[in-house]
Protein: Exported protein
Amino acid sequence: MTSKFSPSRRAVLAATAAAVPLVSIPLLKEAQADGLEGIELQHYKPVFFNPAQWLFILAACDRLIPAEGRGPGALETNVPVFIDQQLHAGLGSDIYQQGPHQPDAPATLGFQIPYAPQDVYRIGITLTQQISQQQHGKPFEQLDAKDKDALLTALQKNGVDFAALGEKSMRPSQFFGQLLGDTKNGYLADPMYGGNKDMKAWVAIGFPGARAAYTEWVDQHNVKYPLGPVSLSGKRA
Structure:
């Protein structure tokens, strides 16, 4: 949510690329993958989010990875498409959700709320929009960039109170964490899953993608790798 895509952010995204949990991403049929890789965001029809939720997702992703400075933004790379498809395909269906839950537990102890990711989004978006209406008299997507960033930061730091709105099981930071994590995954995952359109994020961070072999480069020390990334479907950037 900074004003520029700084080298520090670039470094963080590059490091994150190696840690994207692809094993947790529901597999798609080849026909589905082909359709997602070539789709334009403005022509995409969400299959999980309703129209109001979709406007929020577009606006939030745009602030988490804005199209400013060095590197493409979340909307340029179809991150919202990735999130929508993942939720529709059953993201989190394998998460153990039975209690007891400890909201203060470190992230290393796993999911600590009784909601699947789908419910995290439904509840989180509804409550965030209520807070936006209370504070500004308008929905999140209609706020200016500064106010959007302030509200997202408040979610991240538990600076707003979901409990006061009747939600006792989920903290704002847990919703924000789900949203931010899925945004990163959509930005850096293979394009077959809907995000990282045209491998723009991989190009920006210098990630080679899914090339089958690097045999010819093994003995070429201190030489910059010159080839662009390749997707799982074999497309090249």
About this structure: The mean pLDDT is 87. Residues 111 and 125 are 19 Å apart (CA to CA). Residues 7-217 form one domain. The chain has one domain: 7-217.
